[in-house]
Amino acid sequence: MTRVLALDYGSARCGCAVSDPTGTLATPLPPVGDPASDTGLERIAGLVRTHEARCVVVGLPVGLSGAEGAQAGETRRFVERLQAALEVPVETWDERFTTRLAQATPGRHAEDSRAAAHLLQSWLEARR
User: What domains can you pick out in the chain, each with its CATH number?
Assistant: First the structure.
Protein backbone atom coordinates (compact mmCIF):
# COMPACT_ATOMS: atom_id res chain seq x y z
CA MET A 1 0.00 0.00 0.00
CA THR A 2 1.08 3.59 -0.44
CA ARG A 3 0.41 6.71 1.58
CA VAL A 4 -3.07 8.22 1.68
CA LEU A 5 -3.94 11.81 2.62
CA ALA A 6 -7.20 12.45 4.46
CA LEU A 7 -9.00 15.77 4.75
CA ASP A 8 -11.67 16.91 7.19
CA TYR A 9 -13.02 19.74 5.04
CA GLY A 10 -14.32 22.97 6.48
CA SER A 11 -14.62 26.23 4.58
CA ALA A 12 -12.35 28.08 7.04
CA ARG A 13 -9.82 25.31 7.51
CA CYS A 14 -9.26 21.71 6.62
CA GLY A 15 -7.90 19.10 8.99
CA CYS A 16 -5.26 16.86 7.44
CA ALA A 17 -3.81 13.43 8.20
CA VAL A 18 -1.55 11.02 6.35
CA SER A 19 -1.07 7.27 6.54
CA ASP A 20 2.20 5.48 6.92
CA PRO A 21 3.42 3.63 3.80
CA THR A 22 2.00 0.32 5.05
CA GLY A 23 -1.51 1.73 5.44
CA THR A 24 -1.59 0.85 9.12
CA LEU A 25 -1.44 4.16 10.99
CA ALA A 26 -2.95 7.60 10.43
CA THR A 27 -1.06 10.64 11.72
CA PRO A 28 -2.50 14.16 12.00
CA LEU A 29 -0.82 17.02 10.13
CA PRO A 30 -1.23 20.78 10.55
CA PRO A 31 -4.53 22.02 9.07
CA VAL A 32 -4.78 24.00 5.83
CA GLY A 33 -6.53 27.36 6.03
CA ASP A 34 -9.08 28.44 3.41
CA PRO A 35 -8.79 25.09 1.59
CA ALA A 36 -11.13 25.91 -1.31
CA SER A 37 -9.06 28.95 -2.33
CA ASP A 38 -6.36 28.65 -4.98
CA THR A 39 -3.72 28.94 -2.25
CA GLY A 40 -5.45 26.29 -0.12
CA LEU A 41 -5.72 23.89 -3.05
CA GLU A 42 -2.04 24.42 -3.81
CA ARG A 43 -1.11 23.70 -0.18
CA ILE A 44 -3.09 20.45 -0.34
CA ALA A 45 -1.41 19.57 -3.64
CA GLY A 46 1.91 20.24 -1.88
CA LEU A 47 0.97 17.80 0.88
CA VAL A 48 0.15 15.17 -1.74
CA ARG A 49 3.57 15.67 -3.35
CA THR A 50 5.54 15.89 -0.08
CA HIS A 51 4.01 12.75 1.38
CA GLU A 52 3.82 10.98 -2.00
CA ALA A 53 0.14 10.25 -1.42
CA ARG A 54 -1.49 8.11 -4.09
CA CYS A 55 -5.05 8.88 -2.97
CA VAL A 56 -6.93 11.61 -1.09
CA VAL A 57 -9.93 10.80 1.10
CA VAL A 58 -12.27 13.63 2.04
CA GLY A 59 -14.72 13.28 4.90
CA LEU A 60 -18.34 13.53 3.77
CA PRO A 61 -20.66 14.95 6.44
CA VAL A 62 -23.85 12.95 6.48
CA GLY A 63 -26.56 12.84 9.11
CA LEU A 64 -27.22 9.88 11.37
CA SER A 65 -29.87 8.72 8.89
CA GLY A 66 -27.32 8.85 6.08
CA ALA A 67 -29.00 11.86 4.47
CA GLU A 68 -26.82 14.56 2.97
CA GLY A 69 -27.42 18.20 3.85
CA ALA A 70 -26.03 21.55 2.72
CA GLN A 71 -22.57 20.90 4.18
CA ALA A 72 -22.31 17.65 2.21
CA GLY A 73 -23.14 19.58 -0.96
CA GLU A 74 -20.41 22.13 -0.20
CA THR A 75 -17.98 19.28 0.47
CA ARG A 76 -18.86 17.59 -2.85
CA ARG A 77 -18.19 20.88 -4.69
CA PHE A 78 -14.82 21.12 -2.92
CA VAL A 79 -14.03 17.53 -3.92
CA GLU A 80 -14.74 18.39 -7.59
CA ARG A 81 -12.33 21.36 -7.44
CA LEU A 82 -9.76 19.29 -5.59
CA GLN A 83 -9.94 16.45 -8.13
CA ALA A 84 -9.36 18.95 -10.94
CA ALA A 85 -6.28 20.29 -9.10
CA LEU A 86 -4.68 16.92 -8.31
CA GLU A 87 -3.26 14.06 -10.33
CA VAL A 88 -4.35 11.41 -7.82
CA PRO A 89 -7.82 10.00 -7.15
CA VAL A 90 -10.03 11.80 -4.65
CA GLU A 91 -12.86 9.99 -2.90
CA THR A 92 -15.26 10.69 -0.07
CA TRP A 93 -15.74 8.69 3.13
CA ASP A 94 -18.44 8.92 5.79
CA GLU A 95 -17.12 11.13 8.58
CA ARG A 96 -19.85 10.52 11.15
CA PHE A 97 -18.53 10.69 14.73
CA THR A 98 -14.99 11.71 13.75
CA THR A 99 -15.32 15.09 15.47
CA ARG A 100 -16.56 13.44 18.67
CA LEU A 101 -13.69 10.96 18.51
CA ALA A 102 -11.24 13.82 17.98
CA GLN A 103 -12.65 15.67 20.98
CA ALA A 104 -12.04 12.57 23.10
CA THR A 105 -8.52 12.06 21.75
CA PRO A 106 -5.83 14.17 23.36
CA GLY A 107 -3.00 15.42 21.23
CA ARG A 108 -0.98 18.39 20.16
CA HIS A 109 -2.59 18.63 16.74
CA ALA A 110 -5.69 20.67 15.92
CA GLU A 111 -9.02 18.96 16.56
CA ASP A 112 -9.94 18.94 12.87
CA SER A 113 -6.66 17.21 12.01
CA ARG A 114 -7.29 14.62 14.73
CA ALA A 115 -10.74 14.13 13.15
CA ALA A 116 -9.04 13.63 9.76
CA ALA A 117 -6.81 10.98 11.39
CA HIS A 118 -9.87 9.13 12.73
CA LEU A 119 -11.49 9.37 9.30
CA LEU A 120 -8.37 7.96 7.66
CA GLN A 121 -8.00 5.19 10.23
CA SER A 122 -11.59 4.12 9.51
CA TRP A 123 -10.94 4.17 5.76
CA LEU A 124 -7.72 2.15 6.15
CA GLU A 125 -9.39 -0.47 8.36
CA ALA A 126 -12.23 -0.91 5.86
CA ARG A 127 -9.65 -1.78 3.20
CA ARG A 128 -7.95 -4.51 5.21
Answer: 4-127 (3.30.420.140)
